[in-house]
Amino acid sequence: MDYDSALDASLQRLHDEGRYRTFIDIERRQGQFPHAVWTKPDGSQKDITVWCGNDYLGMGQNPVVLAAMHEALDATGAGSGGTRNISGTTVYHKRLEAEIADLHGKQAALVFTSAYIANDATLSTLRSIFPGLIIYSDALNHASMIEGVRRGGGEKRIFRHNDVAHLRALLAADDPAAPKLIAFESIYSMDGDFGPIAAICDLAEEFGALTYIDEVHAVGMYGPSGAGVAERDGQMHRIDIINGTLAKAYGVFGGYIAASAKMVDAVRSYAPGFIFTTSLPPAVAAGAAASVRYLKTAQNLRDAQQTQARILKTRLKAMGLPIIDHGSHIVPVHVGDPVHCKLISDMLLENHGIYVQPINFPTVPRGTERLRFTPSPVHGPGDIDRLVRAMDALWSHCALNRAEAAA
User: What does 70-133 look like in DSSP terms, one character per residue?
Assistant: First the structure.
């Protein structure tokens, strides 16, 4: 086989479809986020504003977080030196897990290297713990959840997105004695819509199913202490396993699950994705714990972020741009064509110093390509003004429709 030709052909397909992805080389500078420096392919530099980052609250620059990381780095050095079972558990990991368990009102928590790994490792391992487990998964669940369900083998049911009636029908059709788990998200990040948490918990109780929720885009952002949408809606105690990230609103790195002590102990003991992975560097664990602790009482940041999102949505809607608005902090602008989506993204960056990454297939279905903006409390009025004016000009330049997308 001509391997080079196969590689060329596979990459060319992405170029032909307008969805070849490029890395944008940016340098975040302490204390200046969301402003950063873009190093162009020719080596020149340009000041830019980041509008697609997941550091939703700017915690990656928070002095409290940085101080905690410096303290741990100076005290322990760079890496943990091993897996959690073999020399890689430190006081910093234990403190972080205690903070997370307290955040979610659970007995225990378990930290992974990412929320992707936490989803994949946990969902794929649950079938070893509960033989014959049937997993009911929302059709729009994140790739990490899909992969975890697939790798675990066994029976699965895919219910239509947020369709509680369809979920009920699937549950009712299966053996009442079979162990069951419903896996879903609190916020689906591509459209910014919310999962029907209370209704799903009602079904779980009725049919004797466990509940597994991905709160990745909600932790730090919603609820009185930032524990997520389940906390905001008063449903957190009804969720058996909560998945979250430390790399978005908390501004650091890593992922986790929070659950009962027995559930965490079982996952810890059986999940290869946990057992055979080196643990987080102590400095990262220390910074994440400081961020979780800080955001438990930082309602001002959550309020400011929601205000910024409302302002941006209102101003883009006023220009007739097709905003997808489900009331969350995420601001997707529907383009519907991968070439146009990449073109607008490129022109925003090159001509206006505005960085927003195009979202194309397979992240979203073909024909629903979009630009996904993530405003934060540290985006100022001038940043919003520049973005709105640039989008207005480029929408006209590309002769795109100005009809609002259905929410």
Answer: HHHHHHH-S---SBTTTT---HHHHHHHHHHHHHHT-SEEEEES-HHHHHHHHHHHHHHHSTT-
Q: Is the pTM of this model over 0.90?
A: yes
156, 180, 248, 342: the active-site residue: 248
Under 8 Å between Cβ of 65 and 292: no
pLDDT tens digit sequence for 60-71: 999 999 999 999
248 is an active site residue: yes
Helix (H, G, I), strand (E, B) or coil at 359: strand
C-alpha–C-alpha distance, residues 135 and 180, integer Å:
6
Q: How far is CA 370 from CA 17, 31, 50, 190, in A?
A: 15, 30, 16, 9
Label residue 142 left, alpha or beta by phi (over 0 means left) and psi (-120 to 50 means alpha).
Answer: beta
Burial of 211 (0-12, 13-18, 19+ CB in 10 A): buried
DSSP state of 323: B
For the chain, which residues score pLDDT lower than 70?
403-407
CB atoms within 10 A of CB 87: 12
